[in-house]
Design goal:
The complex is a heterodimer of chains A (288) and B (273).
Chain A (H helix, E strand, L loop, with lengths): L1 H7 L8 H27 L2 H21 L3 H19 L7 H27 L4 H7 L10 H17 L1 H9 L1 H6 L4 H23 L1 H18 L3 H25 L10 H23 L4
Helix pairs in contact in A: 2-7, 2-10, 2-11, 2-12, 3-4, 3-5, 3-6, 3-10, 3-11, 4-5, 4-10, 7-10, 8-10, 10-11, 11-12, 11-13, 12-13
Chain B lengths: L3 H27 L2 H21 L3 H19 L5 H22 L4 H9 L10 H27 L9 H23 L4 H15 L3 H26 L3 H37 L1
Helix pairs in contact in B: 1-6, 1-7, 1-8, 1-9, 2-3, 2-4, 2-7, 2-8, 3-4, 3-7, 5-7, 6-7, 8-9, 8-10, 9-10
Classes of the chains: A mainly alpha (288), B mainly alpha (273).
C-alpha cells in the first residue's frame, strides 16, 4: 500500500510548505475563478476574461518600474482596462470582441514597453517569462491575506448581484422590462471579473487564469443547467484540476526532464475535463 | 535605416502589413477578434517547440497556428465558440510553457518572439515569407465572395457549408499568422489585424474600398512602428499596439461625427415613406 502511494505521490508532497502555500492560494483562486467563470461563459465574455489577464501583465510589469506591489499593478490596470472596454462598447454583442481586442492591443503594447524598460533598468531577463507565464510556486506567504481579501470582494459582488446578474445574462430584454439597469449590472460584473482575473493572473499566471475561468465553468454548464449547481461543480472541477496539476508537477521532479510546469498539467486537465463533459451533456440534454 | 539588412526588414514589413490588413478585414467583418488573438498567441508554443527540436521558427509557427485553427474549428462544432477558442489558446500556451521549461532558450529570444523585432527577419526567411504572402492573398481572392456573403448573412447563404467556410477562414488566419509573427510578435499581431480594418470600416461602408483602406492604414502603422523602433530601440509591438488603437480611435471619432447627418437623413427618408 505504502509503495503504491509512493508511486502516485512522490515523497514530501504533503509536508513541503511551498506546496501547502501553492495549494492554498491555488485553491482560493480556482474557486473564485470558477464562480465568476460561470457568468463569463453564460455571457460569452471569455475573450474579455482572457484579455484582462493579459493586460494585467502590463500592470504587473509596470509595477516593477514605479515601485508598487505587483498585485496592485495587476488589479489596477485590469480595472482600468475593464472600464475602457465598457466605454468602447463591450455591452453590445456586435463589436464586443472588437472593443476587447482594441483595449487588449493597447495594453499589450504597454506591457511590451514596460517589460523592455524594466529589463534595461535591472538587467533581469526573466521578468518577461515570470510576468506572462507566472508560477504558482513563486508566491510569498505575505500575499495570502491580500489574495483572500480580493477574492472575498469579488465573491461578495457576485453573491449580491446573483439574481439580477443571472437574469441580465440570460435575457437582457426581460431584465430591462423588469426595471433592472442592464448596463450597470454588466459593468459591476465586469469590475468583479477584472479583479478576479487580475488576482488569478498574479498568483498563478495569465495562462492558468483563463484556463480556470473558462474551462471548469464551461464543463459544469454542460453537466447541469442550474446556475448554482454549475458554480459548485465548476469550483469542484477547478479545485480538482489545480491540486492534481500541483501533484503532477511535484511528481515530475522524479521524471526524465525533471520539473514540468504546473500550468501545463492544469491546462491539460482542464481541457480533458471539458472534452469529457461533451458526451455527458448529450445524454442529459432535455427539453426545458 | 535603409541600408542592406534593413531593406529586407522593410520589404518583409510591407508584406506583413498587406497580409495583416487584408486578412484583418475579414476578422473584423466576422467579429473574430478573439480567434485573431488566440491563433498567433498559441503559435508562440510552436516557435518555442521549434527551437527545442532545432527546426525553423517559421515551421513551428506554421504547424501550431494550423493546429490551433483546426482545434478551434473542431471544438466549436459542439459548444460555445469563445470557450473553444479560449481553451485551445490556453492549451497551446501550456505546451509553450512546457517547451520553455525544457529548452535552454534565454529570455531575450522569448521576448523578441512575443513582442517583435525589426531584425527578426534573416535572409533565409524572406523567400518563405514572400511565398506565404502570395498564398494568403490568393486564398483571400478565392474566398472573397463567400466570406463577404457569409459575413453579411451569417445563416442565410445558400450552397455554402458554414463549417467548411469557418475552417477555411481559420486556416487563412493561421497562414497570415505564420507570415506576420516574426516581425510584430505573437502578442501584438492581432492588434494590427483588427485596428486598421476597424478604422477602415468606420470610414467607408463599401467592402472593396474598406479592404484597400485597411491595407493602407496597416502599411502606414507598420512602417511608422519600424522606423520608430529602429530609432528608439523600443519593441515594434509597442508601436503597433499604440498606432492600431490610435487608428481605431480616429475611425470611431470620424464615424461619430459623420453619423449625425446620416441619422438625420435616415429619419428624413423614413419620414417621407
Amino acid at each position: 500500500m505504502q509503495a503504491v502511494l509512493h508511486a502516485i505521490v512522490e515523497p514530501g508532497f504533503f509536508s513541503s510548505p511551498q506546496v501547502q502555500l501553492a495549494a492554498a492560494i491555488g485553491g482560493v483562486v480556482s474557486i473564485v475563478a470558477a464562480g465568476i467563470g460561470v457568468f463569463t461563459v453564460i455571457r460569452g465574455q471569455s475573450f474579455a476574461g482572457e484579455a484582462l489577464g493579459d493586460i494585467g501583465a502590463a500592470g504587473g510589469s509596470s509595477s516593477y518600474l514605479i515601485g508598487i506591489g505587483p498585485l496592485w499593478g495587476f488589479a489596477g490596470i485590469s480595472v482600468v482596462a475593464s472600464a475602457a472596454m465598457e466605454l468602447i462598447g463591450i455591452q453590445r454583442v456586435r463589436g464586443r470582441d472588437l472593443a476587447t481586442g482594441i483595449v487588449l492591443g493597447f495594453g499589450f503594447g504597454l506591457a511590451a514597453l514596460f517589460l523592455y524598460l524594466g529589463s534595461n533598468d535591472e538587467s533581469t531577463t526573466g521578468a518577461t517569462i515570470s510576468v506572462l507565464f507566472g508560477s504558482i510556486f513563486a508566491i510569498s506567504s505575505s500575499s495570502l491575506p491580500l489574495v483572500l481579501g480580493l477574492g472575498a470582494i469579488t465573491a461578495a459582488i457576485v453573491a449580491t448581484l446573483y439574481r439580477p446578474l443571472l437574469l441580465v445574462s440570460v435575457s437582457p430584454e426581460l431584465a430591462a422590462a423588469r426595471g433592472i439597469h442592464v448596463r450597470a449590472v454588466g459593468a459591476a460584473y465586469l469590475f468583479a471579473m477584472s479583479v478576479a482575473v487580475a488576482l488569478c493572473a498574479f498568483t498563478i499566471g495569465a495562462i492558468l487564469s483563463t484556463a480556470l475561468l473558462v474551462g471548469p465553468a464551461a464543463s459544469a454548464l454542460r453537466l447541469t443547467s442550474r446556475p448554482y449547481r454549475a458554480i459548485l461543480a465548476a469550483a469542484g472541477i477547478g479545485l480538482g484540476c489545480t491540486w492534481l496539476g500541483l501533484l503532477l508537477a511535484w511528481d515530475s521532479y522524479y521524471w526524465p526532464h525533471k520539473g514540468w510546469p504546473v500550468s501545463f498539467f492544469v491546462v491539460t486537465l482542464v481541457l480533458l475535463v471539458y472534452l469529457a463533459s461533451a458526451p455527458l451533456s448529450a445524454h442529459r440534454r432535455r427539453r426545458p | 535605416m535603409f541600408s542592406g539588412f534593413m531593406m529586407h526588414a522593410w520589404i518583409v514589413a510591407t508584406l506583413v502589413a498587406i497580409v495583416g490588413g487584408a486578412v484583418g478585414f475579414f476578422i473584423v467583418m466576422r467579429g473574430s477578434a478573439f480567434v485573431a488573438h488566440a491563433i498567433p498567441n498559441g503559435a508562440f508554443a510552436g516557435a518555442a517547440g521549434a527551437s527545442l527540436v532545432g527546426v525553423s521558427t517559421l515551421l513551428g509557427l506554421g504547424v501550431f497556428s494550423l493546429g490551433g485553427a483546426l482545434g478551434i474549428g473542431l471544438l466549436s462544432r459542439r459548444g460555445r465558440h469563445d470557450v473553444a477558442t479560449a481553451l485551445s489558446l490556453v492549451f497551446m500556451l501550456g505546451l509553450g510553457a512546457l517547451f520553455l521549461s525544457f529548452s535552454v532558450e534565454y529570455a531575450p529570444a522569448v521576448y523578441s518572439l512575443l513582442f517583435g523585432e525589426v531584425l527578426g527577419i534573416s535572409d533565409n526567411e524572406i523567400w518563405p515569407t514572400i511565398a506565404l504572402t502570395a498564398v494568403c492573398l490568393l486564398a483571400l481572392a478565392i474566398l472573397w465572395r463567400p466570406l463577404l456573403l457569409a459575413s453579411v448573412l451569417p445563416d442565410g447563404t445558400q450552397g455554402l457549408d458554414p463549417f467548411k467556410l469557418e475552417i477555411a477562414f481559420l486556416v487563412l488566419v493561421a497562414l497570415a499568422t505564420t507570415v506576420t509573427v516574426p516581425v510584430v510578435g505573437t502578442a501584438l499581431i492581432f492588434s494590427l489585424m483588427i485596428g486598421p480594418p476597424a478604422a477602415a470600416r468606420a470610414f467607408t461602408a463599401r467592402p472593396g474600398v474598406a479592404l484597400a483602406l485597411s491595407v493602407a492604414i496597416a502599411v502606414v502603422v507598420v512602417w511608422a512602428a519600424i522606423a520608430l523602433s529602429y530609432n528608439t530601440n523600443w519593441p515594434v509591438g509597442f508601436f503597433v499596439g499604440m498606432f492600431s488603437a490610435g487608428a481605431y480611435t480616429l475611425g470611431r471619432l470620424w464615424a461619430h461625427r459623420a453619423s449625425r447627418p446620416v441619422r438625420a437623413r435616415l429619419a428624413h427618408a423614413l419620414g417621407s415613406v
